[in-house]
């Protein structure tokens, strides 16, 4: 790294304390700056992101055509067709052709925890963390597939962490003996980071006299992280042809969902996504839609559509734009191998977005740390769904699933009205209780809630043994 390059990019302020630093501090500072090989382009990227942000406005979109969608909510949906997709997915799992990517770079700060979010205990009777619930679901679905086809396949689990969460995540897995999974089939890798800038986007912020402020590059950084960590080669070496990707904070997520995988693969989709139905026009969710001009799939934020379109309903009374994005995707590996190099090098495909944040930083004048009360800087991030418009419509699919069975995110602090540990726990226990009642069990009291372990049942199957039994509140099966 040349200090001159940063000076040419207008970042001379970064080195105003250089002479005060020890040789070791100078070396570590140089190493940090060397991550970003072209400071001039980096600064230009911020300017472009600011322009892009200012240019976004109301967009013309419509619902995806019926040929690109499938719903498990529709009363007319043929159960045999769903079972067919499920069997196709289980077959692919049994053949070792499926891999799993977990995006787990976030910390549990909002939840009052200093650990990664995946370590969080939402208060289930079992005390299981999000990581443990998901690991056990992975064990169970793999067992179901292998049992059905008499195989011994595994599903490699690729876990994307961030610099602040990597060590503690790995330690958590090690301390819990990898939750019964084989260590060699769990691959940890880091998402990238980017410098933080001041409000105008002209200056990189200093974290200290010998370091700059950095932040993760957003969920869209997944593609670069896959490339930089040679995961495409690993997919190929392991014979993986299909990837299921999801976020750590959804307690209800169906790990390696065979229906989703079977449906996506049978339609030969390059990318597919799961959605839940939006029922309230005011709900603040991104929506899977069709760009009316390009006729390509896209995700549009609720703030980018007109009130009229947000309120518009179809003949059946449902919202016209109702496919709520839950960041749960299927990827064909051949598509990733072909497209990722071009995606990560094209700002048209993967633009940078700006987020105005309160960023603790060094005051260049006083040399003291500032902890601002209001947003004072810019973080750059990429969005994972920005690649959707690069996919032809016929190669993209959207699977609508039941919210009560598959989506209850953990985003807000305990006690919050929505997306909290309490709401996540309630969703999980209500579904478990529904399963045992459907299998002939009784409850000690009407309001009792029971936990069905992911090791016991993946999706309500295998619970015949509860028939005639009575369960009390807090029981774990």
Concise structural overview:
Its EC number is 2.7.7.23. This protein has helices at residues 3-8, 23-33, 39-55, 79-94, 130-149, 166-175, 222-228, 231-238, 258-266, 307-311, 333-344, 403-406, 421-438; strands at residues 61-62, 69-71, 98-103, 157-161, 186-190, 193-195, 197-198, 206-208, 211-212, 214-216, 242-247, 271-277, 287-291, 297-300, 323-332, 353-357, 361-362, 369-370, 377-381, 396-401, 442-443, 470-471.
What does this structure look like?
- It catalyses: N-acetyl-alpha-D-glucosamine 1-phosphate + UTP + H(+) = UDP-N-acetyl-alpha-D-glucosamine + diphosphate.
- Pfam families: UDPGP (PF01704).
- Belongs to the UDPGP type 1 family.
- Its EC number is 2.7.7.23.
- It is an enzyme of class 2 (transferase).
- The protein is globular and about 75 Å long.
- The longest helix has 20 residues, at 130-149.
- It has helices at residues 3-8, 23-33, 39-55, 79-94, 130-149, 166-175, 222-228, 231-238, 258-266, 307-311, 333-344, 403-406, 421-438, and strands at 61-62, 69-71, 98-103, 157-161, 186-190, 193-195, 197-198, 206-208, 211-212, 214-216, 242-247, 271-277, 287-291, 297-300, 323-332, 353-357, 361-362, 369-370, 377-381, 396-401, 442-443, 470-471.
- The mean pLDDT is 94.
- It is 30% helix and 19% strand.
- The protein starts with a helix and ends in a 6-residue tail after the last strand.
- It has 13 helices and 22 strands.
- α6 links the parallel β4 and β5 (186-190).
- α7 (222-228) crosses α11.
- An 8-stranded mixed beta sheet has the order 2-20-12-15-11-3-4-5, with helices on both faces. Strands 1-13-14 form a 3-stranded antiparallel beta sheet, with no helix packed on it.
- With 477 residues, the protein is of the alpha/beta class.
- It folds into 2 domains: 3-411, Spore Coat Polysaccharide Biosynthesis Protein SpsA, Chain A (Alpha-Beta Complex), CATH 3.90.550; 419-477, no CATH class.
């Amino acid at each position: 790294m040349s200090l001159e390059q940063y000076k040419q990019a207008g970042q001379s302020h970064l080195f105003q304390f250089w002479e005060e630093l020890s040789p070791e501090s100078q070396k570590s500072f140089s190493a940090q700056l060397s991550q970003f090989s072209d400071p001039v382009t980096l600064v230009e990227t911020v300017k472009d992101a600011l322009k892009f942000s200012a240019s976004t406005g109301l967009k013309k979109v419509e619902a995806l055509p019926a040929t690109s969608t499938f719903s498990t909510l529709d009363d007319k949906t043929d159960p045999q067709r769903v079972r067919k997709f499920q069997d196709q997915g289980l077959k692919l799992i049994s053949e070792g052709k499926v891999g799993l990517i977990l995006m787990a770079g976030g910390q549990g700060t909002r939840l009052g925890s200093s650990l990664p979010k995946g370590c969080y205990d939402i208060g289930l009777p079992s005390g299981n963390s999000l990581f443990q619930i998901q690991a056990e679901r992975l064990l169970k679905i793999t067992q179901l597939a292998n049992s059905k086809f008499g195989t011994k396949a595994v599903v490699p689990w690729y876990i994307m962490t961030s610099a602040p969460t990597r060590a503690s995540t790995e330690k958590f897995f090690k301390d819990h003996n990898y939750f019964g999974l084989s260590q060699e089939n769990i691959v940890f890798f880091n998402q990238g980071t980017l410098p933080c800038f001041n409000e105008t986007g002209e200056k990189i912020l200093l974290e200290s006299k010998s370091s700059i402020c950095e932040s993760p590059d957003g969920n869209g950084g997944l593609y670069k992280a896959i490339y930089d960590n040679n995961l495409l080669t690993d997919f190929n070496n392991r014979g993986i042809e299909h990837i299921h990707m999801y976020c750590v904070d959804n307690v209800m997520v169906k790990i390696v969902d065979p229906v989703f995988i079977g449906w996506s693969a049978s339609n030969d989709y390059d990318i597919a996504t799961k959605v839940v139905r939006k029922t309230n026009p005011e709900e603040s969710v991104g929506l899977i839609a069709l760009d009316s001009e390009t006729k390509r799939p896209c995700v549009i934020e609720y703030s980018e559509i007109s009130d009229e379109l947000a309120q518009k309903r179809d003949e059946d009374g449902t919202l016209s734009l109702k496919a709520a994005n839950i960041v749960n995707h299927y990827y064909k590996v051949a598509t990733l191998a072909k497209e990722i190099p071009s995606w990560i090098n094209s700002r048209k495909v993967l633009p940078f977005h700006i987020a105005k944040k309160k960023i603790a930083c060094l005051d260049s004048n006083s040399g003291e740390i500032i902890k601002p009360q209001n947003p004072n800087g810019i973080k750059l991030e990429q969005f994972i769904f920005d690649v959707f418009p690069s996919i032809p419509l016929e190669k993209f699919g959207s699977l609508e699933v039941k919210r009560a069975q598959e989506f209850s995110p953990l985003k807000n602090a305990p006690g919050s009205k929505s997306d909290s540990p309490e709401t996540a726990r309630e969703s999980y226990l209500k579904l478990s209780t529904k399963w045992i009642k459907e299998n002939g069990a009784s409850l000690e009291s009407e309001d009792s809630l029971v936990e069905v372990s992911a090791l016991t049942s993946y999706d309500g199957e295998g619970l015949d043994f509860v028939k005639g039994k009575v369960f009390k509140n807090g029981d774990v099966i």
